[in-house]
Amino acid sequence: MKVRIGTRKSKLALWQANFVKNFLEKKFGVDVELVKITTTGDKILDSPLAKIGGKGLFVKEIEQALMEGRIDLAVHSLKDVPMIIPQGLTLGAITERENPYDVLLSRDGAGLRELPAGAKVGTSSLRRQVQIKRLRADLHVEVLRGNVDTRVRKLEEGMFDAVILAYAGVKRMGYEERIAEVLDYFIPAVGQGSLAIEIREDDKNTMELVKALDHRESRIRAECERAFLRELEGGCQVPIGAFAQVRGREVTIKGFISDLKGTKFIEGEKKGDIEEAEKMGKELARELLARGGKEILRQIYGGTA
């Protein structure tokens, strides 16, 4: 049996695809081929994601290849997968979550609170930007896109005093020793740290293979967080974060929605049984909408935020 994995061409994407490839080859003895696909998000590097259509731009072409049968499965960073999956496709597995937090890399090893006033911090994420502003309004936050290597290089070249990235990507690319601070007081992106393995719903053979990679607790957490974001109907244009944890039979989700300046920052928390994880995510979203989130969305999408 031959299995074709669709993946982006970046080093991190290839690391992730090879992780799945090696697992399938070792466990099932199948022949696995990587099919490298350039996405719109990879082509447009000079604009913030919020202005060009959001993270879905990193998966659209790969999903098209999957629907057309040119590949058998796709490996994505779960945080890049839109809340609505195209008809006929499904997430066959959500892998065990790596450390989900953001991390700060700085030129002199200083943490976020120790950076000098006026220091230039690079990130492409509105979610990270507003959380930085709430803690350090005196820092200059500037848009920084590109792969992990590119961002680290720009830090080393002095274009930034610090950059913020996902722990998972930093670790997978071998930069763990460069971490100045783990920002475990930031609410991460929905699904950050897990891989999503997307397949065709009617492909039972591939489903049997990839389900061995599915991690139950990570899926529960992901479903809770994704239900929160889906209910808010928020994309990359809105600063939103959510983080679910499981302890025994209980799931806890913390989430926030903010205006672009971080001045209207509405956050909350919900707890419930793991069987109601999605319900907890939806309920927290509705609560935040009622407490002012709806007005934030209206202002941002209306261009008045």
Topology, pairings included?
Elements: E1 2-7, H1 11-28, E2 31-36, H2 40-43, H3 49-52, H4 60-67, E3 73-77, E4 89-94, E5 102-106, E6 120-123, H5 126-135, E7 140-143, H6 148-156, E8 162-166, H7 167-172, E9 179-183, E10 195-200, H8 204-210, H9 216-232, E11 240-247, E12 250-258, E13 265-273, H10 277-301
Parallel strand pairs: 1-2, 1-3, 6-7, 6-8
Antiparallel strand pairs: 3-10, 4-10, 5-8, 5-9, 11-12, 12-13
What would you say this structure looks like, in words?
The protein has ten helices and 13 strands. The protein has three domains: 115 residues, D-Maltodextrin-Binding Protein, domain 2 (3-Layer(aba) Sandwich); 82 residues, 3-Layer(aba) Sandwich (D-Maltodextrin-Binding Protein, domain 2), CATH 3.40.190.10; 73 residues, Porphobilinogen deaminase, C-terminal domain (Double Stranded RNA Binding Domain), CATH 3.30.160. With 305 residues, the protein is of the alpha/beta class. The protein has a five-stranded mixed sheet, with helices on both faces. The longest helix has 25 residues. The model has no long low-confidence stretch (mean pLDDT 93).
